[in-house]
Amino acid sequence: MSTSPSPIADLESPLKFAYWVPNVSGGLVVSTIEQRTSWDFDYNKKLARIAENSGFEYALTQTRYAASYGADKQHEATSFSLALLGATERLNIISAVHPGMWHPGVLAKFIITADHISGGRSAVNIVSGWLKDEFTKFGLDWLEHDERYVRTAEFIDILRGLWTETDFSYQGDYYNIDGFTLNPPPLDIAGRAHPEVFFGGNSTAAQAAAGKTADWYFSNGRSLEGFQENIAGVVASAAAGRRAPKPPKFGLNGFVIARDTEAEATETLREIIAKAHRPAVEGFSEAVKEAGQSTKDGKGMWADSTFEDMVQYNDGFRSKLIGTPEQIAERIIEFKKIGVNLMLTCYLHFQEEVEAFGRDILPIVREMEADLARKNGTELNTDLLPVTNLEGALR
Ligand SMILES: Cc1cc2nc3c(=O)[nH]c(=O)nc-3n(C[C@H](O)[C@H](O)[C@H](O)COP(=O)(O)O)c2cc1C
């Protein structure tokens, strides 16, 4: 596919790259295939340093409290993120957070502290939840699907209010804030109003809430056409009433299998699926019925995922970042053309493959981005490219 770029594609800005922090056990695919990936802190510390030296600007930690789909051990997201910030120099760490588990004022304060400690590298991914047991077994309310997004939108409004205003007050259905000032405020950094707010979700309700409130909209893996639909939904909601200063940018998940030949990459995908841990994947597909499938229009996360899709539990195979480095770079450029600003990536063997991604794929992406900009009468702003230090990557 080679179409002209969408009006919302940002051809001047280099794409940004992120990876999923493996802070839960079992790797990022529910398969017995060998995964040289560990969920422990030492592994993750080294991985974060490799990533920031390889051209990655963001890492996303996952929030998970209960065993599910094989991820039977988990490190808590905000504390793990803070430790990774301490271990790195340039990487932005996005911590996933559930409204309903946190009070927005407590989180706003926590993130301000992380912002000061890290020189402005702390961000949040607000996720509305799908694992009912995590909430009900903690004795917390489990809200109906679309109502979760009403709470999420209030939560983000309050984070933003507490980060940018003094004497901030808010009366919502879920939270009330009465004339609160958080001191110190977040760091004053050019180009941002406060720590960045990412938002993960695929359903119509998720798109509507993200369009109004988020800095970044994050999606599970999707096809080009599928993600175009999500983008259209978010853009329409943003146009209808935006509470945040700028429209959201777009991030998309993809599981990367880069090999010397397309046949090898496809064979690895086949092996991952052939060795899927069937009971865990089936248990997972039962639990996720609380997500997209429970909505009125039946759209949303995992709503139309097949068994094979769910072996990567964020539908990462659907984005098709599978093939040779050139093929993957081409695919990434197609996503840039429809409006993607950030690729969120995951791998079988994180340390080796994040480094290989920076070495083998990113240079091709950068060349293609520069070409794409020129062909459309503009220039790629190379001042915005992240610093890389591949020699230092494996130290
Ligand atoms: C990029 C991304 C990351 C996510 N991370 C988490 C997470 O760490 N923990 C979690 O419980 N849910 C996570 N979710 C899922 C959301 O909690 C929730 O299930 C999803 O928004 C429901 O989607 P739906 O509204 O499309 O049904 C994530 C979603 C996306 C897109």
TrEMBL record:
<dbReference type="InterPro" id="IPR050172">
    <property type="entry name" value="SsuD_RutA_monooxygenase"/>
</dbReference>
<dbReference type="InterPro" id="IPR011251">
    <property type="entry name" value="Luciferase-like_dom"/>
</dbReference>
<protein>
    <submittedName>
        <fullName>Dimethyl sulfone monooxygenase SfnG</fullName>
    </submittedName>
</protein>
<keyword id="KW-0560">Oxidoreductase</keyword>
<keyword id="KW-0288">FMN</keyword>
<feature type="domain" description="Luciferase-like">
    <location>
        <begin position="17"/>
        <end position="341"/>
    </location>
</feature>
<keyword id="KW-0503">Monooxygenase</keyword>
<dbReference type="Pfam" id="PF00296">
    <property type="entry name" value="Bac_luciferase"/>
</dbReference>
<dbReference type="InterPro" id="IPR024014">
    <property type="entry name" value="DMSO2_SphG"/>
</dbReference>
<keyword id="KW-0285">Flavoprotein</keyword>
<dbReference type="GO" id="GO:0004497">
    <property type="term" value="F:monooxygenase activity"/>
</dbReference>
<dbReference type="InterPro" id="IPR036661">
    <property type="entry name" value="Luciferase-like_sf"/>
</dbReference>
